[in-house]
Amino acid sequence: MHLFEAVLKSKQAVCEDTYEFTFGLIGLKLKFLPGQYVWLILPELKYSDPKGARRAYSIASSNQDASEITLIFRESDSGFNKSLHDLDVGSEVKMTGPFGSAFVQSEIFTKDIIIVAGGVGVTPFLSWLRSGVEEGANVTLIFLNDSPNREVCAGEIQKLCQENKVTAITHYQRFDPSLVESIDNYQKATYLVSGPEAMVYDVYEKLKSKKIPLEQFRFEEFYPRRFDIGDILNLDEGFRLAVESASNHIIITDENATIVYANQAAVTTTGYSLEEMKGSTPRLWGGLMSPDFYRDFWHQIKIEKQPFVGEIHNVRKSGEQYFALARISPILDEAKDVIGFVGTEEDISERIKHEHTLKQQRDKTTIEKEKADAMLNSVGEGVVVINRKGIVTLANRAALNMLKFPVGELVGHNYSKTVHAQRFDGTKVEPQYRAVNCSMKQEKKIVEDMIYTRFDGSTFSVRTTNTPVRLHRKVIGGVVVFRDITAERMLEEKKDEFIATASHDLKSPLVAINGLLSMALDNQYGELSEKLRDVLEQIDASGNQLLVLVNDFLDATSIQSGKMHYQYSTFDVVAVVEEAIQLYETVAKKKGVELKFEKHEKVVVCADVSKVAQIINNLISNALKYTNKGDVKVYINLLDDGGKAGIYVEDTGIGISESEAAKLFDKFRRVNYSKVTGTGLGLYISKKMANEMGGDVVLAKSAPEVGSIFEFTLLTEDDQAQ
């Protein structure tokens, strides 16, 4: 069911006092079956009408191109009808639908079909003819009208009947049974009857006299009436009061389902007033169920004369849909004939909504799990999920393949005790010190390289990323993501070996060259001319730069291989900073940058003094390289109640963007600034050395074109002793 907007495209008279209006649908192609209907809702009534601004109309147009809806109506004195008649082309309206049992669909018929249509009751059959009648049906259309002047779409219907091989019989008087007696197999045919209520009743009574049973009839809206159900309502005032006071929606209809009574709860549930409901059928708020449902429903309550109990889907006058538990029982007379129906509805929308939500959640959970499993198994890295106790709850295909573990030997077992690991120096990593367990305990991500042992006893190098899993701020498990880096390590080792060898071989002659240049510049080989001195100074600067490069390569290789040695002692870090300031004062003056040190009282740390000096020198050197104006400021603060010393280098240089900051401490990573040369190893080496000494080097703050602050932390003597 749709609520949609439409615009009146054309209107024309199709016979005396009868009009065909065609509406173009806005932004929609409507799917419907011939024989269904829509509710037409006018934006306003030019003439007042106690039944409101909406009416139901059978669809007259073809469903082959449902971008338009055609409706047919006769003129009348109702305010709605007169307002519709006066509607201008281009006017916008609203519609809801499609509704109804689509009773002209052939799958519910016998082979022989006889249609009896009166006046505008031909509309659903016109839609059927325009859409195309299915082959194999033997169809006869008997079209009843008062006169040729009131024959709806006469010429078109005749032409469509010929095209669809439908026999057409036009009759301008009351229905005569002889019209069907000449039709082959008429006593076993299915009869489709549509038109004014009096006509429907007359046709049924006359065919009943020809022994045509009710089971062979299909009625669009009005059913034959044999009893005035309204008389029952005056029999018992106490019964009426009880019904009126009931909290459930209750209606009473005649045998054609025309409403003769509705209680206040029905008014509240549907939104329609009693005046709007009387004379209408429950399709006023119904029609949303399938055609098969209505076929079986009417057969049960009218032919089998059995009560119906079930859930139905309806729509209130406001357009809001709702679900109800309906109980409809036939009212039988003394001869056990159906003379009416009593129906009750209990609104169960909230229950249905809740059930629907639960089903959606279950379906969504199932779908999401299937998606997650598919995505997890498509990941190239091994993924293992463990619970708080370290038990494997999930392992993807890549993890099982790399570890060569059968799923039953891994899932359900303790990960750290099942998949053994060792460091690159050959020492075993005990379960309590495994990175995944430490990450859960420390509640932080830990990246670590190690050697895993496979199920078959073979080993391979892995890089693992271990992340705690939190739920409601509590760690409930961990995730290990790992990949095979055996080939990478072999390549890295060969590269480091080459760099170390090359750097070592380069360093000896460079030291000798720099020494000889230094002696020459000190005039130990005689006085130098100014021109020669300038040349030698440039050579000396380049040699020093090359020596720094070689030393960086050697340091990086030593760090990577774990061969860098540290000589720990206690010393005043303030003095080390002062020496670094003196070393770079000349460089700062040449650039026109002020180098300042905020003097601090003695701060004793425990570390390798040469490594600390190297880190401080690197930070000050970098600050001066990337600062063209302003100043570079160095200061010291005590952190963690004196347990750590923080050395800060603050500049007013080019600054660092977020994207560059993320990888600033990687090997060979430099800020993208063409005026400065370097290896991109300084910060990598500084951070690794600081970490080894129990401290760290981090980018504390930075902004492009504003400047940066680097923080170098060290353990103080007191904290180191603890």
Automatic annotation (TrEMBL):
<feature type="domain" description="PAS">
    <location>
        <begin position="368"/>
        <end position="414"/>
    </location>
</feature>
<keyword id="KW-0902">Two-component regulatory system</keyword>
<dbReference type="InterPro" id="IPR036890">
    <property type="entry name" value="HATPase_C_sf"/>
</dbReference>
<dbReference type="Pfam" id="PF13426">
    <property type="entry name" value="PAS_9"/>
</dbReference>
<feature type="domain" description="PAS">
    <location>
        <begin position="235"/>
        <end position="279"/>
    </location>
</feature>
<dbReference type="InterPro" id="IPR005467">
    <property type="entry name" value="His_kinase_dom"/>
</dbReference>
<dbReference type="InterPro" id="IPR039261">
    <property type="entry name" value="FNR_nucleotide-bd"/>
</dbReference>
<feature type="domain" description="Histidine kinase">
    <location>
        <begin position="501"/>
        <end position="718"/>
    </location>
</feature>
<dbReference type="GO" id="GO:0016491">
    <property type="term" value="F:oxidoreductase activity"/>
</dbReference>
<dbReference type="InterPro" id="IPR035965">
    <property type="entry name" value="PAS-like_dom_sf"/>
</dbReference>
<protein>
    <recommendedName>
        <fullName>histidine kinase</fullName>
        <ecNumber>2.7.13.3</ecNumber>
    </recommendedName>
</protein>
<dbReference type="InterPro" id="IPR008333">
    <property type="entry name" value="Cbr1-like_FAD-bd_dom"/>
</dbReference>
<dbReference type="InterPro" id="IPR001610">
    <property type="entry name" value="PAC"/>
</dbReference>
<feature type="domain" description="PAC">
    <location>
        <begin position="308"/>
        <end position="360"/>
    </location>
</feature>
<dbReference type="InterPro" id="IPR036097">
    <property type="entry name" value="HisK_dim/P_sf"/>
</dbReference>
<dbReference type="InterPro" id="IPR017927">
    <property type="entry name" value="FAD-bd_FR_type"/>
</dbReference>
<keyword id="KW-0418">Kinase</keyword>
<feature type="domain" description="FAD-binding FR-type">
    <location>
        <begin position="1"/>
        <end position="105"/>
    </location>
</feature>
<dbReference type="InterPro" id="IPR003661">
    <property type="entry name" value="HisK_dim/P_dom"/>
</dbReference>
<keyword id="KW-0808">Transferase</keyword>
<dbReference type="InterPro" id="IPR004358">
    <property type="entry name" value="Sig_transdc_His_kin-like_C"/>
</dbReference>
<dbReference type="InterPro" id="IPR050736">
    <property type="entry name" value="Sensor_HK_Regulatory"/>
</dbReference>
<dbReference type="Pfam" id="PF00512">
    <property type="entry name" value="HisKA"/>
</dbReference>
<dbReference type="GO" id="GO:0000155">
    <property type="term" value="F:phosphorelay sensor kinase activity"/>
</dbReference>
<dbReference type="InterPro" id="IPR003594">
    <property type="entry name" value="HATPase_dom"/>
</dbReference>
<keyword id="KW-0597">Phosphoprotein</keyword>
<dbReference type="Pfam" id="PF00970">
    <property type="entry name" value="FAD_binding_6"/>
</dbReference>
<dbReference type="Pfam" id="PF02518">
    <property type="entry name" value="HATPase_c"/>
</dbReference>
<dbReference type="InterPro" id="IPR017938">
    <property type="entry name" value="Riboflavin_synthase-like_b-brl"/>
</dbReference>
<dbReference type="InterPro" id="IPR000014">
    <property type="entry name" value="PAS"/>
</dbReference>
<dbReference type="InterPro" id="IPR000700">
    <property type="entry name" value="PAS-assoc_C"/>
</dbReference>
